[in-house]
Amino acid sequence: MYDLLLLLLQIGIMVGIAPLLQGLIKLCKARLQGRTGPPLLQPYRDLAKQLRRESVVSDQASWVFRYAPIVYVAGLLGAAMLVPTVSQRSPLGGFADAIVFIGLLALARFALALAALDTGSNFGGMGASREMTFAALIEPAIILVLLIAALPRQSTNFSTMAGETAFTIAGLLAMGAMAIVIIAETGRIPVDNPDTHLELTMAHEGMLLEYSGRPLGMVMWATQVRQITFIALSVALFLPWGMAPLHDPSLRQMVTGLVAFLAKIALIGVVLAVIESSVAKLRIFRAPDLLGLASVLGVLAVMATYVVSP
Amino acid sequence: MRVLRQSMRGRVGAHDYPLEPEAAPAAFRGQVQLDPNRCRGDAACARVCPSGAITVEETSTGWIWQLDDSRCVFCGLCADACANRAVSLSNAFELAVRQPDDMVTRAEFIRNEETD
Amino acid sequence: MTDVVTSPAVDLQQLSGGELLPSRVPGETRVVVPLVTLPRACQVIVDGVGARLATMVAQDERAETGSFTLAYTFAIPDRRWMTIECQVPADSPAFPSVTPLVPAAHWYEREARDMFGLEPEGHPDLRRLVMHDDWPAGVFPLRKDFDPSIPVPRVEADPYRFHTLHGDGIVEIPVGPFHAGVIEPGHFRFAAVGEVVLALEPRLFYTHRGIEKLIEGKSLDHGLQIAERICGVCSLSHAVTYCQAAEQILGIEAPPRAAVIRSIGLELERLYNHVGDAGNMCAGVGFMVGVAHGARLKDELQRLNEQFTGNRFLRGLSAIGGVRRDLDVEFAAQMSLELARIAREFGELTAMILGSETTMERMRRTGILPGDLARALGVVGVGARASGIDLDTRRDHPYAAYRDGETARRRDGKTARRPDGQNLPPSPAVGRGAGGEGYSAVGRGAGGEGHSAGGGEGFPVPTREEGDVAARLLVRIDEVAVSFALIQALIAEMPAGPLIAGWTPPTTDAAAFSATESPRGENLHWLRVNAQGTIERYRVRSASFPNWPAVAAAAPGNMVPDFPLINKSFELCYACLDR
Ligand code: SF4
User: CA–CA separation, C274 vs C263, rounded Å?
Assistant: First the structure.
């Protein structure tokens, strides 16, 4: 019963708050740049608009193009349900662990990249190739970060991983890796530019170019969920304060957990906006250097775990 | 970081335009206006208009002055040409209409023998 | 172009081996050569004195002389012009192509082929340029017997053949003409291996407007209204160029006060363009703070334009014989204050952009246009100056208030200041902060070494040698400083007097041309009126025309996602081509 309630709560948070977080980041960026910026709730309106719209599908597209968004959304929602948010308990922790989490993300990404290639449009292909290049570099880093969290507890189950890694050397290195992972996974400057519609520079946006209407709305929403998932993951692993305990939390603990979670997410959102406003996008050949750094940090963290703690 | 501090110092530049009205400067060349009390049907405006936006048509009793906003390029030649200062360019710039016909302003004049 | 010719017109005539004709504008040497020697004559002028092909005008004179005429006009480094003309017989409309010897003639000759049906024999690329493939063969819109009022049926034709590269791993990336943003139509065909561009072929001219045909038969006054609307962001420059050509024909001159007001307007136009572009170049690297502030400052400048002339794009300021709006003392003082504030804020913005290491790192060594290539293509404006070519129409062919030697000398006394307070001439050193690292100070600021004395002497022309995106940004920033200083100086010494000189429509056949330095480079208009006082032929060579091929030349070797940045650093206009 507790798990079911937690699951419902988690769906509400992840799916419901994701556009709000997007709006917050956009608003912060606008203010940092001296612009008025879109209202906080604009992403909801955009989604509502897209979901109401009719979808136009290229006659070159096959079933891959049509079903990929479903796989994408399902994969990301599944992953989102694994991350502990309000309490230390992972809502679907009984079914899956961190390895599945990575698999689900990869599945979602793979589905979208396939769809982008499916229509034969150049930008889709270009976007997919860039996204996969980035993915090849960023996924090892994610695995390593999760590994660091898993090692002390000897378990890859999120429920036990959450709230463990603190300020050890390994933890700090992993945190650095995680920061880069978040920037890359949320498609932000300096790796990708979420606001650009210059066809030639897009990575993630390039893959969405052929979508319109309801599938586009779904994919956009799922991407926002992906963003909040990663932020929530870093929060669970590195900023676990205020989370409700694993077993039988009181209502008060749950409320504290919720408030703390929202505050931490918002904080990271603001930090992302600051980073994005203060640097320019990297040259596409330089981006792998940054992403590689994430993996290196991850490896160092693993080594540190063994060297420092027996 | 330094960049951001500098950036933040600047104020937000934009107005909420459609909500807060925006006035054009005095020198602005907007919609063409006719002062019916001054117009004497010389048609100087129609002759100089490069885009054919103004037409003046002689009738048996007077003349019809007509302006098609959709053709006007806001050059102001008509205002410069009018010896009676009947034509001027106002500050109005919100010229959107729902029907194409609403772009046309028409004024019919009856010739007054006494003043002519 | 340090090669200096001090010889009189006769030398040029002997050089080209032609027969001297009466010149049409001061400083022009005009010769007519036989058709067969045309390419050689052009090559001699280009190689011999370092001339730059400035325009090529084709005319249909079959009614009068029974032939077509071609006139290649060159800009000679010491402020003169050289026009080489020849007659192309009506019954065999072909001429030996100049392009193999003078590459800059490439597009001009293709355009003459499309518009007049004159076949450039030996031209390496005879595909359609201006009129696309659905235009029927054998219909030439600029010939006098073409009636524009009759709609031309479109035809099915073979699709345009792009140059293709074959090889392992080479992919073709077609981009446009529809883009994902609201920009003008243009098609870019990349050949790339992975993310590296091997070749780029742009295809432009998608929205041909027939302006050169439309304007034929119009009065000079109505012609101005059309000329002013060739381009949105260079509209005053086009208007002034047209007015000057017309004034040349009429034998009048704008009064001194009008000349100063025109110059102020032209500098305002440069300012709002350069300021906006400096910000926009940041969009190419995703440095959004720069974009936002550039856009804000640009808008403030445009509001100033609006208060000054009644139009954000400075339309309706210039008229044949002078200007239509005065700049009263009160507003001038207010403008001066506003500009000083905007100059300060622009200084902060540039410090921010140049101080952003990630931004500058993207711009350096990206999109390099080598100087010799730029010279061969006849590139003008910022693109040329960033590749080490010291040219600026304001100094080289002075007009409006730039002609006034007095003003120039006084201005030279007060050196232009960069927004950060460093003196600009004689050497705009950029050793400041991260921005200038690796850049030697190459600004030949006061620009006059080797040039003969005269009016526009001492006019600061910032140049750089690197030819990359960063160089184009820095040249713009330096030019903004010059423009701010110039406007202040012009406001301070406004002569009194009338605003406009009177004129009557011409009654004889006459032709003239004129050039101005628009924000994008030299605009050159060639105008001919007939005995009825209406326009007989009008040829617009906007700054974008010779510069577009340079964009294509600067792209190979860069990465595909860097192309938008390279394109923005040239900031060319599509509409200026689609006349
Ligand atoms: S402003 Fe120009 S275009 Fe408009 S009506 Fe007057 S003359 Fe015609």
Answer: 16
The pLDDT assigned to C448 comes to: 33
Contact between C264 and C271 under an 8 Å Cβ cutoff? The reply is no
A157 or C554, which is more confident? C554
CATH of the domain at B40: 3.30.70.3270
Smallest Cβ–Cβ distance between C293 and the set A29, A34, A285 belongs to: A34
* pLDDT tier at B14, thresholds 50, 70, 90: low
CB pair distance less than 8 Å for B76 and C225: no
* Torsion over CA: C546, C552, C553, C559 (sign): positive
* Count of A-C CB contacts under 8 Å: 79
Q: How far apart are CA C327 and CA C264, in angstroms?
A: 10
One DSSP character per residue, A161-206 reads HTTT--SSHHHHHHHHHHHHHHHHHTT-TTT--TT---GGG-SHHH
Q: Say yes or no to pLDDT of C475 above 60.
A: yes
C253-502 CATH choice from 3.60.10.10, 3.90.1150.10, 1.10.645.10, 1.10.569.10: 1.10.645.10
* Residue C210 to residue C239: CA distance in whole angstroms: 18
Strand partners, C528: C511, C537
How many CA atoms, within 13 angstroms, populate the side-chain half-sphere of residue C109? 27
pLDDT tens-digit readout, B31-44: 888 888 888 878 88
Q: Does residue B102 lie within any of the structural domains?
A: yes
Residue C196, chain B, CB below 8 Å: the answer is no
Find out whether the beta carbon of B109 lies less than 6 Å from any atom of ligand 1: no
Element (H, E) at A84: none
For residue C241, the model assigns a pLDDT of 92
Q: What is the mean pLDDT of residues C176-202?
A: 81
Instruction: Tell me whether residue B82 is in a domain.
Output: yes
- Residue C126, classed as helix, strand or coil, is coil
What's the mean pLDDT in C302-307? 86
Q: Which helix (H) or strand (E) is C195 found in, with range?
A: none
Pocket test for ligand 1, best of B31, B39, B73, B93 (most atoms within 8 A of CB): B73
Residue type, C268: L
pLDDT, tens only, C320-372: 888 888 888 888 888 888 888 888 888 888 888 887 777 888 888 888 888 88
pLDDT tens readout for residues A34-60: 777 788 888 888 888 888 888 887 777
- Beta partners for C526? C513, C539
In chain B, the percentage of residues whose pLDDT exceeds 70 is 78
ipTM value greater than 0.85: no
CB distance A32–B4 less than 8 Å?
yes
Total of domains in chain B? 1
- Which of A25, A133, A283, A286 to probe the C interface (max C CBs under 10 A)? A283
Instruction: Give the residue from C89, C86, C109 showing the smallest Cα distance to C97.
Output: C109
The residue whose C-alpha atom lies closest to atom 4 belonging to ligand 1 is B72
CB C9 within 8 A of CB C19: no
Residue C293: its chain B contacts at CB < 8 A?
Answer: 7, 10
Instruction: Tell me if C289 and B7 make a contact (CB, 8 A cut-off).
Output: yes
Nearest-atom index, ligand 1, CA of B79: 6
Look at residues B74, B22, B19, B21 and name the one whose alpha carbon lies nearest to residue B50. Answer: B74
Residue B88, domain extent: 29-110
Mean pLDDT of all residues in A242-266: 81
What architecture is the C7-121 domain classified under in CATH?
A: 2-Layer Sandwich (3.30)
pLDDT average, residue stretch B98-116: 74
The structural domain count of chain A equals 1
**Nearest beta carbon to residue B27 from set C225, C229, C309:** C309
H/E run at residue C473: helix C469-492
Closest Cα in chain C to B49: C222
Q: Contact partners of A by the rule of 3+ C-beta pairs under 8 A? A: B, C
Return the residue matching tokens 């897209």.
A50
Cα A177 to Cα A185: distance, rounded to the nearest angstrom: 12
